[in-house]
């Protein structure tokens, strides 16, 4: 199979994979020296098996020249629309998306994960903190504030978050704020200043930096693409 993929790729102008298909491309040497993504649950294995590949588990899809890789199966539609846009332009891709009753596409850098749909933690302490963050999303929360609420030290809290959610308290807090900001950008006409304030970012610059880190786009660009009309 790997040899067949290698031969086929030599005669095509581009190659694409979705989900764990990236492992096959990597095995054929098509991802060497390139950045690639795959389903988050197999990203670590892909990196271990193919050290020449720069594995990024977060984006829904990545384009590296003539090689495209997509994340989970739900990302295949985003990738397909991106390919349509690459071949025929954004206008045609938009018509296809409308026919499918979906948004044109999510930005390629948009995370595979959404805070609002992450699995519920099995520990009551983390679950309580998640609700606490949601209730106080507009406040200037810090990791020390969260630790105090959970009655643990900041170091203990970081260890708990990494064990339970695979991330740090600060990163989770920022992602939660971005999630709320995304919803407001999609469903309201609020100014960026107001959205930044109500989501705990304080300034639009802070909001923009968080969006770039999390979604690889800006709030204004996100609203233009995803605003519910």
From TrEMBL:
Question: What name goes with this protein?
Answer: Transcriptional regulator GlxA family with amidase domain
Source organism phylogeny: Bacteria, Bacillati, Actinomycetota, Actinomycetes, Mycobacteriales
* GO molecular function per UniProt: DNA-binding transcription factor activity; sequence-specific DNA binding
Taxonomic superkingdom: Bacteria
**UniProt xrefs under InterPro entries:** Class_I_gatase-like, DJ-1/PfpI, Homeodomain-like_sf, HTH_AraC, HTH_AraC-typ_CS, INH-QAR
Ranges where the HTH araC/xylS-type domain occurs? 127-225
Which SMART domains did the record assign? HTH_ARAC
Supply the Gene3D superfamilies for this chain.
3.40.50.880, Homeodomain-like
> Transcription: is it a keyword of this entry?
yes
| Keywords tagged on the record | DNA-binding, Transcription, Transcription regulation
């Amino acid at each position: 199979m790997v040899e067949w993929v290698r031969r086929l790729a030599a005669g095509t102008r581009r190659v694409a994979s979705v989900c764990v298909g990236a492992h096959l491309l990597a095995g054929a040497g098509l991802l060497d020296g390139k950045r690639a993504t795959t389903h988050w649950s197999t990203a670590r294995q892909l990196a271990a098996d193919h050290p020449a590949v720069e594995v990024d588990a977060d984006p829904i899809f990545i384009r590296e020249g003539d090689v495209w890789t997509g994340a989970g199966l739900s990302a295949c539609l985003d990738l397909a629309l991106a390919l349509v846009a690459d071949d025929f332009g954004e206008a045609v891709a938009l018509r296809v998306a409308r026919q499918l009753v979906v948004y044109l596409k999510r930005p390629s850098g948009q995370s595979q994960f959404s805070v609002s749909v992450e699995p519920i933690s099995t520990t009551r302490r983390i679950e309580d903190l998640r609700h606490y963050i949601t209730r106080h999303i507009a406040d200037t929360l810090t990791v020390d504030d969260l630790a105090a609420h959970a009655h643990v030290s900041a170091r203990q809290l970081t260890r708990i978050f990494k064990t339970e959610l695979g991330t740090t308290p600060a990163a989770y807090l920022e992602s939660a704020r971005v999630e709320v900001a995304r919803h407001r950008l999609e469903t309201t006409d609020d100014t960026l200043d107001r959205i930044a304030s109500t989501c705990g970012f304080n300034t639009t610059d802070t909001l923009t930096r968080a969006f770039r880190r999390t979604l690889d786009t800006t709030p204004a660009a996100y609203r233009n693409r995803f605003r519910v009309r």
